[in-house]
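I'm curious: can you give me some protein's one-letter sequence along with its backbone structure tokens because I've never seen that pairing?
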Amino acid sequence: MTTETIEEARPESVSFVEEIIRKDLAEGKNGGRMQTRFPPEPNGYLHIGHAKAIAIDFGMANKYGGVCNLRMDDTNPQKEDTEYVEAIKRDIEWLGFKWGNILYASDYFQQLWDLAVELIKEGKAYVDEQSAEEIAKQKGTPTQPGTNSPYRDRPVEESLRLFEYMNSGECEPGKMILRAKIDMASDNMHFRDPIMYRVLNMPHWRTGNKWNAYPMYDYTHGQCDYWEGVTHSLCTLEFVSHRPLYDLFVDWAKIAEGNDKPLDDNRPRQTEFNKLNLTHILLSKRNLLVLVKEGVVNGWDDPRMPTICGFRRRGYSPEGILSFIDKIGYTKFDALNQMSLFESAVRDDLNKRAQRVSAVVDPIKLIITNYPEGQVETYTAINNPENEADGTHEIEFSRELWIERDDFMEDAPKKFFRLGPGKEVRLKNSYIIRCPEEGCCKKDEQGNIIEIYAEYVPDTKTGEANANMKIKGKTIHWVSCAHCIEAEVRNYDRLWLVENPRDEVANYSKENGDLRGIDAMRPFINPDSLSIKTAYVEKWLTTRKPLDYLQFQRIGYYNVDPDSTPDHLIFNRTVGLKDTWSKAAK
């Protein structure tokens, strides 16, 4: 790629990551190639934090004519499963990206092993038989140097023999490890003879029983990038301190294979950016797994979960998610982003694509006493005023309607501009109606209002003589009792009661004897994060498909749940029409 091409592709403002990429391409590093990778561990479902990494890994490759591979970091068979692999692929595709190749760290197990053997021969690695506790003490502190292992200078032949023993299936896990021999006095703790291999003695879901000793992430990651031809390794800020070790292992791999090309121009380069952190959300697959196993949520795709599949089921659009990621950008500083900003981006996108429908989620019956019994009018409703191509559908009007319970108040204050004694409103797309001063409602024995009565004003529909009649009341929505469908509506709220559950859970755990798992989380979980209501919706909704985007007029954005059927409609609330987070936080 030429400098001219880069300049043409450059927007007015780019992130520091993109500036680095542009500079490398302009200087011809890696032969002017652009290649990235997205390397998730298949031990759980991807969450919203991964979406930010996906956006930049695939986005930069797409923008600069490169390729982004999907590489599963499957070095820990204790937690990995093909279920997670398939889920990861679905999530990436749903976000709108395509990978160049699907690769696995396990593809390189033999190369990694052979390199480790070569490093032992070169005196750069050794087998250590100390316990984990002994090794931890020996590593020192950030201000105090570590001390050498008593096994650090054992003969090469002995380390080679023991390394083979580690993979034999006879070595007890935890009995031996392979360590890199670097510098126990280094200021960088990661250089203090890091672990390269540990014994697990368990089969791998791809390689079967061939391996019993498995490589560690820090040893694996750089070599896989190098062997694949990755030019830009983009990762989050916690890997800043790992970068020197990443570079060293790549250098060792190049030297071991006799590669004499200039190291600075032909190597993967790691660049770190800030994580995506959101208020009222707890990330990390470990924490999310606790919520699933303890039944706090109904699976990984529960709409209260911050997983990509959870947001998908809740009704977030991929375009809305990517718009939010673009707004917050990529920096070198971690920040806690407000959930209201995320919802605002989603709301803006849904406004463009959601079909407008009538639904009453807290129904009370309205009877228009002067409208002829048995008479039915049919109106044409616009599906989406933001997109004419979405067309129209028909909706029926009759004498008995369902309206929202809070659209009527018997003892209404002066500034209540909906229905009440002597008050009038416009029914959306239909007539103006007026409640009588007396006898405007019917109550049950407990005093609960069960019916509302009103009269319609003739000739007040659009295009009729009194269509422009001015009233103080607002416009309210409705569905015809005889022409609607009963539906289940799931209204989701925040799962966490506190703005920063990560810190709150950690502090509570420490203050209460190092609590773990759900016991540390429970005090901060919202017991009212889900309410299920029986609603009435227009029958046209039986034609909608799972995950279709909808706007329940005057209520909020919803979507069709995957479990919904024409005989049992189910809708999930995605986000309200207005921001409710700022108000709730006060």
About this structure: The chain has 16 helices and 28 strands. Confidence is low (pLDDT under 50) at residues 1-11. The CA atoms of residues 344 and 579 lie 7 Å apart. The longest helix spans residues 48-63.
